[in-house]
Amino acid sequence: MIEFLIINTDYGDNDIYMKAAVAENQKISIQEMPQPTLQEHGAKGAIVKVLGCGLCGSDIVKFIHDGNAKVLGHEVVGEIVEINNGMFSKLKKGDKVVLGHHVPCMDCDYCRNQSYSMCRQFKKTNIFPGGFAEYIYVSPLHLQNTVFKTPEKLDDMEISFMEPLACCVRAVERAGVHKGTTSLVIGLGSIGLLMGQAVKAFEGDVIGCDLIEERVALANNLNFDVSLKFKDNDATSAKIKEMTCSIGADIVFMTAGSDSTLDFALKSVRDGGTILVFSSVKNDTTGYTNNEIYYRELKILGSYSPSPEDLETAYNLLTKKKVIVKYLSTVYPLEDIGRAIEDTMTNKTLKAYIKIGQN
Ligand SMILES: [Zn+2]
Ligand SMILES: [Zn+2]
Fold first, then answer.
1. How far apart are CA 127 and CA 138, in angstroms?
2. For the whole model, what pTM was predicted?
């Protein structure tokens, strides 16, 4: 059970305080902390009142493995309540926005080779203190590159999928999905369901696979060409072969982090095909064997985090309803964030959206 408490602290100075969910040593609690101000950030940038924030798998990994006190959350929808935007006139006070949390420099060797998420600036830039807070500080760099006005056609929860979908868009582009390719998506959690729809948006065919019946059914309702319940590595990869003229999938997306899925991926990918690694595994020493990669001419690729361009592509896919996210999220109030984490970890919910403020 995730411990959950509300701490009210009396501070005696002139700061304005806000509520935030603070994670520390596998516990999360609602605490009061000073509201960020523009003044403490050189009077430039924006203060955004957070309306809601999606709970990402990477938040859960940090919750479990990083003991330091921190405010998680980066899939933010909010309203600009204060802005000093200088030359960036596209945004103003009162605008409702959705944003990405890392900004590449677009100028270093990594960026010039499209490895944006490896750019040294990328990880250094972040929103402050994190999305599970009533207010966040957003820098001028973010305002210029990763902040978008929310579209009228979508509700807050739907557009909060921009960042996770952008991660999938990047993966689909890196893997080379195009018309005529068949992809297998292993794992139909929220990321698997986004990935499959992203594959379709790039005109590829897609097979989905998961252990949980309801997720398989959901994928079938979300435009996957076919999805099936995982049985075991041999039986299920035989089925994949059957569906692909005995060849195997051109591309396998590994969105489920389990060691045994590596063997399943190797059995299901065609010779000369691509395996796109999109999740961490518990036992990191279980790997792809050298000889299998060599003799079968496999491509093993990683894909991690999106560029500003991927964010824009994802924004457009959501706005044009080419990717449907309406049925993926369950809404929790900030006070219930402990339950949201627990429900996500135990597969009771596909994806949690934490509702924080109102506009
Ligand atoms: Zn995320
Ligand atoms: Zn760079």
1. 5
2. 0.94
